[in-house]
Specification:
Layout: H1 4-16, E1 23-27, H2 30-43, E2 52-55, H3 56-64, H4 71-86, H5 92-111, H6 116-119, H7 128-132, H8 138-153, H9 158-184, H10 189-198, H11 200-203, E3 211-215, H12 222-233, E4 237-240, H13 245-249, H14 259-265, E5 283-289, E6 317-321, H15 327-334, E7 341-343, E8 347-348, H16 353-366, E9 369-371, E10 374-378, H17 379-387, H18 394-405, E11 410-412, H19 413-416, H20 420-425, H21 432-451, H22 457-478, H23 487-499, E12 502-503, E13 513-517, E14 528-532, H24 551-556, H25 562-577, E15 582-588, H26 601-609, E16 615-618, E17 632-634, H27 637-649, E18 651-652, H28 654-662, H29 664-671, H30 687-702, E19 709-710, H31 712-721, H32 723-737, H33 751-771, E20 776-793, E21 796-812, E22 815-822, E23 830-831, H34 834-838, H35 847-862, E24 868-874, E25 888-889, E26 892-893, H36 900-914, E27 920-922
Parallel strand pairs: 1-2, 1-3, 3-4, 5-15, 5-16, 6-13, 6-14, 7-13, 14-15, 18-21, 22-24, 23-25
Antiparallel strand pairs: 8-12, 9-10, 10-11, 17-27, 19-20, 20-21, 21-22, 25-26
Helix pairs in contact: 1-2, 3-10, 4-5, 4-9, 5-10, 10-12, 16-17, 16-23, 17-18, 21-22, 28-29, 28-35, 30-32, 30-33, 31-33, 32-33
């Protein structure tokens, strides 16, 4: 392999030798400058002064003496120009987005040396095209005619009128904006280019070099072409083009779209012997990998990167990323076998934790609201910030636990500002100036904290780059009129500003394995190449050109459209691989989500149009595990000891008994392993929470009647006044939803207002149903009932506690009712046999009845002389005319005495099994029960 830049270095060194410092080389990128100097250093025999090397942008800026202004200031100046010219009073917030588009259009107009008046001309008469645009080709004239002809035929609409209203002003806006920039010494890149061309004769004295050598360009805009022509006319220019003859000889090959023209207009020196490589000499492997990140593992396959040392030469091998998000996975994969890796591309700042922190700060401010004159923050961004790696601390973890415990959807700002850092985070920022200053202070504070920690070099660099960028934005905004800058617009500008930042990597640029993006490969050649994400949509990249100038007019006036962009990437791809000895093209073949798994059109062209055979390889990673084996845990004496100790000190609830019957393994996780379900914020009232609210509200309503007999007039008074019911609902929300008994005022908002109305409807109907039972006496509400049960295990007696909270116990003429409130919709209040209640394999086991009978048993043990009636208030049945809460046994009402002996026998057998040291804790066979289980991920059933 004889690299292109090495060929150029050899020619120039042979021609100029020690006088090579008299020429200036202009490259499309900085990376090609570094490689050129490296090749030149290999040729020199003694110390000499090297040539000046510049990028094309640096060269033009050097000639003009004007620096490019920041985009924010340009858009704001454009906004003022627009308002003066049109008379519209459009706010900056509305203008900013399409102001960016308009600025890009003006930039294109100048770079392509167009007459803005022609571009923005309103062609009312199509015949005018022939006379006005005589300098255009027939094809270009046809494109103009197509656009204006179609627009004329279109039906009148508000959008069309709005377009024409703005279109007719754009030429004047462009001219006025341009004049103002020149007057103030400001410019965008296109204006600088045009200024150089307009004043070229006056700038000739700045052309001090003997020759200006342009190396390896591809697509040239009109300004660049004109500049090259002028330099060539002065015999001060030399040109070198890099290409594969295959796509210059084929006039239909998109990769040669620009090079074919360049070779004609700007021929290379006659003495330069351009060397290429025949396609048949290349070994190309096309590798399909099922997964975007999984592509990185191609690096670790010896068949693809064999024959390289741990520290390869700088042009030995390169990893090229069509998708730059693969940077970290690829570097991580390569680091396992290469000691030296040089990363040419920067790391996007938006992938750093500091960017996520700033983004979350913005979300926090956007979702803040004032209630009762006090500022509150929404819980989601609050929790995200408190959990953030740059802010997390013991104090923040306590705050998180408190938010979950009290289910605080909105948190007062004053309660979050517990230290200096959190005060900066959770402050009310009424203006963008305050937010910007607060952000700078926060970054400084975090930087000081990280100085005291070890192994935080990356975080420190992220914070440093963030501070520089935010301070730079502050300086920019400090020089412009800020009256119209809203906080929302500032947030948008800030994020856009940060998204443009790339964090540079430090390292030796000419050593080791090269990792770079597609644009960094211009002019570079490597012996071995691995190109990642060679997918359609990644290579070529799919991006929409946002422009006020419609497609047909862009084509007519020679402005770049998507075809030119595709041709540029085709050139980059084919030029890159044409000297390589081995090329590996990896693409993501998965079809998940929006990814089509389609290889790039360039790969298809290589397969079918290149004249040589590419080897196709499929890398498959079988991540799909076999069906999860059933989990079972054999009980031990230690397990038995834990259970006996646990339930001698605290009660074993009927819910736990039902859990055991549903899934013995779940019982093990909860009561032996001690696993807890993670707390969740209840922003919306789900069925479980609705049931809890109903329980609490019903308790508050009937609490004044505990120990008293309720008469008809008592219940009628509740229905007439209704304020007691409303107070009960608010009290329920305070205890169960907000979980804060010290809350001074409960204010319901949004969906909770509807939930409260539903609760009110159900509670009123409960009272109407209870009217049919009067008189009755309330014995207890939400009472704790428990009793001791004896177990005989291995010849020893043990006492355990069984019990729970009984929703309501009342006494009617028929006896004492043990009542459980239930909100489930599929509940059945009857059972046929006692065995069905204890049969874990029975698909329709009546868990609610089982629970109520346990409470009845406990009450019966304590007061055996009383007739106990198990009952369930199923609230979905409240509105039935024949509402009846009594549980049916074999289709009839019954009292607990009738089933007590049989139930005790079943309960005793169940307890003996639970506490046995020969038990086996197995998963349920019914996987439908696993759907909502908090431990289903452990069992691999989630």
């Amino acid at each position: 392999m004889n690299p292109f830049l090495k060929q150029v270095a050899q020619y120039l060194y042979d021609k100029y030798h020690s006088n090579i410092n008299q020429i200036t080389l202009v490259f499309p990128s900085r990376r090609s400058q570094v490689f050129f100097n490296a090749y030149l250093n290999e040729l020199v025999e003694q110390p000499i002064l090297g040539p000046e090397v510049l990028t094309i942008s640096e060269f033009v800026a050097q000639l003009s003496g004007i620096q490019i202004s920041d985009q924010i200031g340009l858009i704001m100046r454009l906004h003022e120009t627009y308002k003066r010219q049109t008379g519209h009073d459009e706010g900056l917030d509305e203008f900013y987005f399409w102001g960016e588009i308009l600025l890009n259009d003006f930039n294109d107009i100048d770079k392509y040396l167009l007459d803005a008046e022609d571009v923005f001309q309103n062609i009312a008469d199509l015949k005018e095209i022939e006379s006005r645009f005589d300098y255009l080709t027939e094809e270009q004239k046809k494109a103009i005619e197509t656009f204006w002809g179609n627009l004329g035929k279109a039906a009148d609409s508000g959008n069309r009128e709005k377009f024409m209203e703005i279109w007719n002003e754009l030429s004047a806006i462009y001219q006025q904006f341009k004049n103002e920039l020149i007057e103030h010494g400001e410019a965008y890149s296109g204006l600088i280019y045009r200024n150089v061309l307009d004043n070229f004769s006056a700038l000739e004295q700045k052309l001090e070099s003997e020759k200006y050598v342009f190396v390896g360009f591809n697509a040239l805009n009109a300004c660049e072409k004109s500049l090259l022509k002028k330099l060539n006319g002065l015999e001060k220019a030399m040109f070198f083009w890099d290409y594969d003859p295959i796509f210059t000889e084929d006039v239909n090959h998109e990769a040669g779209l620009f090079v074919r023209e360049n070779l004609v207009q700007f021929p290379m020196p006659s003495g330069f012997l351009f060397e290429s490589r025949e396609g048949s000499e290349r070994k190309i492997k096309i590798v399909s990998v099922p997964g975007q990140v999984a592509q990185a593992q191609v690096v670790n396959q010896k068949q693809f990167l064999s024959g390289l040392s741990d520290v390869p030469e700088f042009d030995d091998a390169a990893l090229v990323l069509a998708d730059e998000n693969l940077l970290m996975p690829v570097v991580s994969a390569a680091g396992s076998q290469f000691d030296s890796i040089n990363i040419t591309m920067g790391y996007p700042f938006q992938n750093t934790p500091v960017y996520s922190l700033i983004s979350q700060l913005i979300d926090l401010q956007k979702n803040a609201r004032k209630m009762g004159g006090e500022l509150f923050f929404y819980h989601r961004p609050v929790l995200s910030l408190l959990n953030h790696q740059l802010l997390a601390s013991d104090e923040s973890r306590k705050m998180i636990a408190d938010i979950y415990k009290k289910n605080r959807i909105y948190i007062p700002a004053k309660e979050l500002s517990v230290d200096k850092g959190l005060n900066l985070v959770f402050s009310p920022y009424q203006s963008w100036e305050r937010f910007l200053n607060g952000l700078l202070n926060l970054i400084q504070l975090l930087s000081m904290r990280h100085k005291q920690e070890e192994n935080v070099a990356l975080e420190a660099e992220y914070l440093y780059q963030a501070y520089l960028s935010v301070q730079r934005l502050s300086d920019i905004l400090g020089r412009i009129d800020k009256k119209e800058m809203s906080l929302q617009l500032f947030f948008r500008i800030l994020l856009q500003h940060l998204q443009r930042i790339s964090i540079p990597f430090e390292g030796e640029p000419l050593s080791g394995l090269q990792v770079m993006g597609v644009l960094e490969t211009r002019n570079l050649d490597f012996r071995k190449l691995v190109i990642f994400s060679v997918n359609e949509g990644k290579l070529p990249t799919t991006s929409t050109i946002h422009s006020f100038i419609p497609y047909h007019l862009r084509k007519a006036f020679g402005l770049p459209a998507y075809e030119e962009q595709d041709a540029m990437y085709a050139y980059y791809f084919y030029r890159l691989i044409h000297r390589a000895e081995e090329v590996v093209l990896a693409y993501d073949s998965s079809t998940d989500g929006l990814n089509s798994g389609e290889m790039s059109r360039y790969v298809l062209q290589l397969q079918y149009d290149s004249g040589f055979q590419a080897e196709k390889i499929a890398m498959n990673f079988d991540f799909k595990a076999a069906k999860a084996e059933a989990i079972s845990i054999e009980a031990t004496s230690e397990h038995q000891r834990k259970l006996l100790q646990r339930f001698s000190e605290r009660r074993l609830s009927p819910s736990a008994l039902n859990t055991y019957l549903d899934c013995k393994l779940k019982f093990y996780f909860q009561n032996i392993a001690g696993l807890r379900q993670q707390d969740e914020m209840m922003e919306d009232v789900d069925p479980r929470l609705f049931g809890n609210l109903f329980h609490l509200a019903a308790e508050v309503i009937y609490k004044p009647f505990i120990g008293k007999t309720i008469e008809k007039q008592d219940l009628e008074a509740l229905l007439i006044k209704k304020n007691e019911i409303e107070k009960a609902i608010l009290a329920a929300f305070q205890d169960e939803y907000y979980k804060d008994k010290e809350l001074s005022e409960v204010v319901l908002r949004g969906n909770n207002i509807l939930i409260a109305e539903h609760l009110k409807t159900y509670l009123e109907q409960m009272i109407r149903n209870d009217l049919k039972q009067v008189p009755f006496r309330i014995i207890d509400l939400e009472g704790n009932f428990e009793d001791s049960f004896q177990l005989n295990l291995n010849g020893q007696a043990h006492l355990i506690q069984i019990g729970g909270i009984v929703d309501r116990i009342d006494e009617t003429n028929d006896g004492v009712r043990v009542i459980d409130y239930k909100t489930g919709r599929s509940l059945k209040l009857d059972f046929k046999s006692m065995e069905d209640l204890f049969d874990r394999e029975y698909h329709d086991r009546r868990k609610e009845i089982m629970q109520t009978l346990v409470y009845a048993e406990i009450f019966n043990r304590q007061k055996p002389e009383i007739n106990v009636i198990p009952a369930i208030y199923k609230i979905d049945d409240f509105f039935n005319d024949n509402f009846s809460p009594e549980i049916k046994y074999r289709r009839r009402n019954f009292s607990y005495d009738e089933v007590a002996e049989e139930f005790r026998e079943g309960l005793q057998m169940l307890l003996n099994e639970i506490f046995s040291n020969t038990n086996v804790y197995e998963q349920t066979h019914d996987e439908r029960k696993c759907t909502l289980c908090p431990f289903n991920k452990i069992c691999r059933r989630g």
